[in-house]
Amino acid sequence: MITVFGEGRGFRVIWLLEEMGLAYRLRPVNLLAGVEKDAEFLAINPAGFIPAIQDGDVTMVESIAIMEYVMARYGPTPLAPSPHDPVFPAYQQFLHLGEAGLAASIYFVVGARNFAPEYERQNWSAGQALSVFESRLTLVTRQLARTSYLAGETFTAADISVTYALELAITSGGVTLSEVEHSYMARTRAREGYKRAMETCQSRKAWLAKAV
Q: Where is the GST N-terminal domain (predicted)?
């Protein structure tokens, strides 16, 4: 039984586990209440960020690394194309772009626009982070003009990675997406694995409903 600590980016992990049909449990982590009050979680991840997982003797953090671990440990799975598959380079690129290029940059925009003092909400760093997000988004737009999913015509873990980032951008980052991205998200969010993950992640479900 894999234990997933925290929603947020942990949604990526839970969605992946649902797609693979693996047993897990979600252990909520309340960042707003302060992780310093959560000794059990800090014993798992002393850095205090989510997600983290515990799988037997294995403890890991970082959502993309966790996804790669799960697919390697419990695969093979079509969610992770073989290195010899022609779509593998695109899969690898967008799996990591979803965090390194998209979610990591929009995170700072979300923080500035939703939590900073009013006079700091349009600061230079937030503007720079938004520019980084928008430049990386052009790669997503170009790919989706060619294929239904980011690694071709088949849904992969790269789509889990990027869909999470796009949801964060439109709900909390003030980003407007094109019809290409909206159509893509309609396809990924229609998956039964996504729907089951949303039912598990009730805090995320409520947050998304409020943001609409």
A: 1-78
